[in-house]
Amino acid sequence: MDATLGNRAKALLDVRGLTKVFGALKACDSVDLTIGKGEIHALLGENGAGKSTFVKMLFGALEPTGGTIYWKDQPVAISSPGEARGLGIGMVFQHFSLFDALTAAENIMLALNDPAPLATIAARAEELSHTYGLPLDPHAHVGDLSVGERQRIEITRCLLQDPELIILDEPTSVLTPQEADKLFETLEKLRSEGRSILYISHRLEEVKQLCDGATVLRQGRVVAHCDPRKETTSSLARMMVGDEVPHVDREKPAAAREALLAVRGLSREASHPFAVPLSDINLEVHAGEILGIAGVAGNGQGEFFEAVSGEVLQERANIIQICGKDAGRKDISGRRLMSAAFVPEERLGHAAAPQMTLSQNLLLSRYRTDALAFLARLGVVRGRAVGEATKRVVSTMDVRKSTPDPEATALSGGNLQKFVIGRELDRAPQVMVVNQPTWGVDAGAAVRIRQALVDLAKNGSAVLVISQDLDELFEICDSIAVMHGGRISAPIPVGEATYEEIGLLMGGSEPGQNPRPPVEVV
Amino acid sequence: MLESVLLTIATAATPLLIAAIGELVAERSGVLNLGVEGMMIMGAVTGFSVSLLSGSAWLGVVAAIVVGAAFALLFGFLTLTLVTNQVATGLALTLFGLGVSGMIGESFVGQPGMRLGVVDIPVLSDLPVVGRLVFGQDPLFYLSLLLTAGVAYFLFGTRAGLMLRAVGDNPASAHAQGISVIGIRYLAVMFGGACAGLAGAYLSLVYTPQWVENMTAGRGWIALALVVFASWRPWRVIAGAYLFGGVTIGQLHAQAIGVAIPSQMLSSLPYVATIVVLVVISQNRRLTMMNTPASLGRPFVPDR
């Protein structure tokens, strides 16, 4: 960057002391940030560091408690997303921004302050998306599209407003490495046109590769402004996390032993229009082994988890085998009684009942397996035994809470995730199946959860981890299989796997083939 | 004979169509208002009493619309602003409407009411069979069809309709887009109330021009079922309303002829038909999921 552009007079956006208070919590505490014209600026921070709160204020979706936003040197009050768009600020949301029941063109039309008819908007969107290498079908229903395709709609929608500043919230967290590379090309093109980008991420490699400047947030405060190209990933990580970055200890497992979990020829039709059908899934997880299943969200992981956990029964009992016995016709309690444990993706509402206390939630998933300890005659609950088990889980997993037995919804995401995983681990199950164990969890909690899974495997259990986070899978797994379009690849031992190979499989390529561009829309 | 049967089917179907099309708009915005029956009966008693007191049937119609919308506004205030449970509030609204209408209407029981005159297009209405059916109906019959066409165009052909559907699909996203979720829901609910009030007025000013307590007789609930039956598509409401109207009138004639089936069984036919059709409809899951407002019945509170 030209040094003279760095001074304040030339800044496109200059934020001074922006603060947001929720009750007793300072989500953003006097945050300063400056972005020049044609700059890609990274906003780095752990989950819960205040990044989302900050950008919501920039985009007018939240009202700041204090501080000033200067846009082209003029102080502005942005009180609605419409005003932000009017100024020339566009935002690509990661979650909750598209309407599943509407078509791509209808989604785009909603965001534009443009009276043009739908057909015109559809044509313009199609043309613009091709210019930037983001092909999309304007008449497809969003509910039928992959996550990557949805992101293209979001970006196209944003670009149609001709913004000067584009805010991207964790854009690559749902993409394959190859899709991410295509996105970076698009971003480079936008920068060369003189547009500025605020790039929110916790992936340090891509920030180093892409960004001209970075602001690091920790617990709502700015801890550093830096040039990411001059930093190392570990120095950036230290800024984000504070102390030395923790890591998981893991030993090499002994040679493969008996298969504790086996899935044989699992197929499943799509149960609703937005579901992914599964076809002929076969896998085995052995004692002492951690098998990872990688894949972009929405490729059948949820459907697969339901079939393995017993939320959906199989036609034949031998499709799912737990500890060598047929389990395909057993429900979730039946499978738990065979010493299996399951942790679904959605912790609040699926793994835990939000309005119930931790001890009640513990009882809910274990009243059958621990009936002897937890229930007296006639099904009367032994409160003390359940309370002790809850305490044990809380102290083993270091669950932080403000009252002795809070409702599940009162816990932060990371703490609740530690609890729902610890609740199952406390039973010392022979088979453990976890879907997205550390999604949206801060680094400290993530390391603790991963360590707990590694320790479980070390003690001879079979662990199946479904995750979108490749770093996580490479860190803890013995081998990795990839799920794409409801099919699963053969597992690859971690020692032989590369990110590139896994990434290609995630994009739908068969091993050994030439790389294909990710899902083109006709 | 056939002509008069078809005419009565149209009068049986029209109030259902009007009430259902209003509720469809409310539900498309994500609000489930189970108070249709209550708003409808309030419309019936208001329409009857205002027209009797003022001497103008049209004034009664307007008053019924206003009262229906006012009841819906109350529902909106409770469920949207105070965020009460929509199901419980809707049921309460129905009970409240039935009670209040009985009280207001007490002095009108047995009095002969006003009747809304029929439109009579000269020459055309004298055509055989279709003449009176197409060109000699009451004005609200034509209004009900125009209303359906208008709602269909509004929902799928205008930007405001797109916004309303977006609010019903995903209020959090709509809010992030800068759409006023609560504002749109208020308007949609009030439109639903106005339609229910109009449907009520139809009952007491056209269908049977008199006031009888509980004269809606569950039509509000049928209208609610019709919305599901139509899988939230306006044109299909017409099919549902006329199917239901047809079965209702058909079983009356069957009773009159003296078919050897107990009359209670025949009277239950329309409701049985509704249940059967609902079961059949729900078999097509793709169609249902594409059209069901995803946030139906779920409250939304914007964070500020």
Brief overview, please?
The complex is a heterodimer of chains A (522) and B (304). With 522 residues, chain A is an alpha/beta fold.
Strand content of chain A: 15-25%
CATH fold description of the largest domain in chain A: Rossmann fold
Described by the principal axes of the CA atoms, the overall outline of chain A is globular
Which structural category fits the helices and strands of chain A?
alpha/beta
Distance between the termini of chain A: 39 Å
- CATH level-1 class of chain B: Mainly Alpha
- How many independent structural domains of chain B? 1
Q: Runs of chain A with pLDDT <50, length 5+?
A: 1-9, 511-522
The secondary-structure element order of chain B is HHHHHHHHHHHHH
Any idea what the shape of chain B is? globular
Roughly what fraction of the amino acids of chain B lie in strands?
Answer: under 5%
- Coarse structural class of chain B: mainly alpha
Main beta sheet of chain A, described? 7 strands, mixed
Number of helices of chain B: 13
Q: What CATH architecture of chain B would you give?
A: Orthogonal Bundle
Tell me about this structure:
The complex is a heterodimer of chains A (about 525) and B (about 300). With about 525 residues, chain A is an alpha/beta fold. Chain A has two domains: about 5-240, 3-Layer(aba) Sandwich (Rossmann fold), CATH 3.40.50.300; about 260-505, Rossmann fold. In chain A, about 35% of the residues lie in helices and about 25% in strands. Chain A has 17 helices and 21 strands. In chain A, the strands form four sheets. In chain A, strands 13, 16, 17, 18, 19, 20 and 21 form a seven-stranded mixed beta sheet that branches. A six-stranded mixed beta sheet of chain A has the order 6-7-8-3-9-10, with helices on both faces. In chain A, strand 7 (about 165-170), helix 6 and strand 8 form a beta-alpha-beta unit. In chain A, helix 3 (about 105-110) crosses helix 4 (about 120-130) and helix 14 (about 415-425) runs parallel beside helix 15 (about 445-460). Chain B has one domain (about 1-110, about 130-290): Orthogonal Bundle (ABC transporter involved in vitamin B12 uptake, BtuC), CATH 1.10.3470. Chain B is globular and about 60 Å long. Chain B contains 13 helices and no strands. Chain B has helices at about 1-30, 35-55, 55-80, 85-105, 130-135, 140-155, 160-170, 170-175, 180-205, 220-230, 235-255, 265-280, 285-290. Helices cover about 75% and strands about 0% of the residues of chain B. Chain B starts with a helix and ends in a 13-residue tail after the last helix. Chain B is an all-alpha fold and about 300 residues long. The model of chain B has no long low-confidence stretch (mean pLDDT about 90). Chains A and B meet through helix 2 and helix 3 of A and helix 7, helix 8 and helix 13 of B.
